[in-house]
Amino acid sequence: MEKDDLKALIKEQNVLFNTNSTKEIGYRVQKLKKLKSILKSKEDELYEAIYKDFKKSKFDTFTTELALLYTDIDEAVSKVQKWSKRKRVGTNLLNFPAKSYIYPEPLGTCLVIGAWNYPIQLSFAPVIAAIAAGNTVVLKPSEIPSATSNSIAEIVNSNFEKSFFHVVEGGVEVTTNLLELKWDKIFFTGSVNVGRIVYKAAAEHLTPVTLELGGKSPAFVTASCSLDVTVNRIVWGKFLNAGQTCIAPDYVMVESSIKDKFLQKLKERILEMDFSFKNDNYVQIIDDKNYQRLKGMISEEKIYYSGDFDVTSRYFPPTIMSDVDFSDKIMEEEIFGPILPVLTFDNLSEAIGAVKKLAKPLSCYIFTGESAVKTRILDEISFGGGAVNDAVMHIANPKLPFGGVGNSGMGNYHGKAGFDAFTHQKSVLDKATWLDPSVKYPPYSMKKLKIVRWIMGA
Ligand code: NAD
After folding, report:
1. Domain range for 413
2. Are residues 205 and 277 in the same domain?
3. From ligand 1's centre to the CA of 250, what distance in Å?
4. Which of 154, 206, 292, 329 has the least C-beta neighbours within 10 A?
């Protein structure tokens, strides 16, 4: 789409928004239900597109791309009336006689920019929130999984009016053009570096942003953990989508007394889970650039376990690195692939201190049987969200706001948090006219000041 077409698109959406029709609850519910029924009817097309881009199975596509969207839509449909209701709050004595209200109001015309790793989920989940909140939306999915991007555009653009919800496909150039326009909200999912570009562009128009970024998410494993369950959950969370998951455990900090047992069990479970293409248990690395990037992160001498690499099919075997420390290359940036570095610790304070030297992560996982350990880590490390004795699954609870902090992002979504991300809380004092005390009007006096202080309890 050319610049002028994008300008015309945003104008069209502004016009629709200003008719106030998108604010009606019935309209929101109808569009959300429509989106769900379209996604359901197009599941086969989406499975095919995802398979082309990732070699991903139907099972994984349903559980990691579609299921969350259906849950989010159902939650929004059943709660949108309640969420968008005007809320009465108390009024202080200084404002007596009056009533005070908070009116949740949609922000307007919103831009959603998606990342490539879960292209369906990361595109539609913010859109669901934007629609539930009463906005119009332009979605720019990631161009990297091109079959999925094409499919999303075809599905949306042939079923929704352009003035309400439209998909614009493209890469850096199109996104740059989109970012020059004045939006009422920008919701971005992607890397820290592009997050900065988005934030700067939004600042030009003072547009509010939600930034869903990444980082190095640690998993702490202490000697008191339930080892078999811990290994199951780490292996699943790490190698799901071949590690191309923003909330995958990036690295493990294991207590040194159980290191050998832990590594041995990791290897056993990886073999048992059989991460191969032949049984559709695994996905390919998204492109050659990422494949080579990941290969370059491995230090051969620290490989504890790996498998046969195949560049042609972009098969990258689950790879464990041991005896890793914070100065290794693998610890420099987010891995975003199927390499699991294992570091050890003896002293929890030192381990926490070392993790805190890195940027605030998107997630943190704590595998332990001791509640004191859990409390310490939760109290001392700042991170977006996470789990105790599990990995990744916190994303599947719509009651938990999802988002980063510091370098891993700003703002939250999913469920009510998503609704709030696309909503302005308009505060209104509704004052009665039967009383108009003269105390606040000039001419002022010491007596008036005394009264004001008495009213304020100051
Ligand atoms: P990316 O930042 O390269 O791309 C994200 C989007 O930005 C794409 O739509 C792309 O077209 C656009 N883009 C890329 N370069 C741009 C530029 N120079 N100017 C304007 N727009 C540009 O990210 P990615 O590679 O798609 O995703 C990987 C990153 O996203 C990882 O860091 C991962 O942790 C993070 N991520 C975060 C979440 C989350 O929910 N917090 C989810 C998925 C991925």
Report:
1. 3-213+409-425
2. no
3. 17
4. 206
